[in-house]
């Protein structure tokens, strides 16, 4: 059992989340998603979770495992071309996970997604949270542009652009 992690999660509350991502930052992130989706046919969702609940924390649930749950709960997989991408941030761990649906995952190597996550985490270590998320959205958007170019006659907004605060 990782007591330092448990303590970090117990001490990271909603106040930390609101300071890290105030309403203005969430609106800027939402606009970044909107702008990105005007350049490709994919769907990007961003979710920030302050900390894990007690039971998952005691079971040592990883950020990756939680991101997969959130991907399912948010129905990011529910797009016509299976090209939804979730950018998930577990704030207490300052860990980013990207979960891509099978349509885009088959085209982009895992290492590319990991590189985007590490780039975002680097920004977070410098307390550049909004900038890190926007850079991640841009990088994910670039991958989606390669494989799912924007078609104004076919592309519709299939998933919410508003960041999810869990």
Report on the structure:
The protein is α/β, with parallel strands linked by helices and 166 residues long. The protein has one domain (3-165): Diaminopimelate Epimerase, Chain A, domain 1 (Roll), CATH 3.10.310. Helices cover 52% and strands 13% of the residues. The protein contains eight helices and four strands, in the order αααβααββαααβ. The chain has helices spanning 3-11, 14-20, 23-37, 54-58, 63-73, 102-105, 110-125, 129-147, and strands spanning 43-49, 84-90, 95-100, 164-165. Strands 3-2-1-4 form a four-stranded mixed beta sheet, with helices on both faces. Strand 2 (84-90) and strand 3 form a beta hairpin. Helix 3 runs parallel beside helix 8 (129-147) and helix 7 runs antiparallel to helix 8. The protein is globular. This is TLP18.3, Psb32 and MOLO-1 founding protein of phosphatase. It comes from Nitrosomonas oligotropha. Residues 26-141 form the TPM domain.
